[in-house]
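Structure tokens please, single chain.
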Amino acid sequence: MIAQLVHLIGYPFVQNMLLAGVLVAVVAGLVSRFVVARSMSFAVHALAEVGFTGSVGFLLLGLSPVFGLLTGSMITALVIGALGLRIRERDSVVGLVMAFGLGLGVLFLSLYNRYATEAIALLFGAITSVSSGDLLLLVVVAVITIVGLGIMYRPLTFATVDPVVAEARGVPVRLISILFLLLLAAAVAEAVQVVGVLLILTLLITPGATAERLTAHPGQATLFSVLIALLATVGGILLALLTAAPVSFFVTTIAFVCYVAARLGQPLAERLRAARA
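Here you go.
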């Protein structure tokens, strides 16, 4: 089995898969903890689905569906950030935007005369067909996302933990929220390459939710989130190479097992800490 994996890794398309998986996992892991802490799971779903509308729209124009996905996600992030100023109204805004975006997507599909193979592949993940050009785009998006998150990490953490106090202390909470939505849109566009639009919640929610079960320290939770995303993504790709099952199945399974293990192990860890105290 190991010899087979080593042989397969020698192929350029497999190397592209692994590199793309690592890039996606790192970005998704970094963003995931804030998605969970800020209760933005529904927003992730909307960004992915309306991003798919953007990919179909770009196909109509004869352009790359990957760029369309990124553009659609970014526009959706700006609209949600502009309309959903208060947390209590954000879910309503997300639902309205997602419904409109899906309706627009249906219109684009009806206008597209050919079979939208590239766009349909994004629904279930297209990691097996990542080209050198796609990989370059993933690198650019990953660098921008990581640098942006690094710059706004402290104010974002403050605004996530206590937005009222953060705003009183002069933190631009509204601007931080919009900027984070844009970073989230970039992370969505990357993660779709691995698990697809329909399974986007796996990489952008499960690692962060699992990390919260392992530690309450923000820095450690971010590290755990990245490691879990890497384990699920790279492990899923390697297992898919050895079997006939799709990558998304293994990615979602590994991520789910990690969460269940953390959920079951949390009470035991708390009892051990209490016993030491």
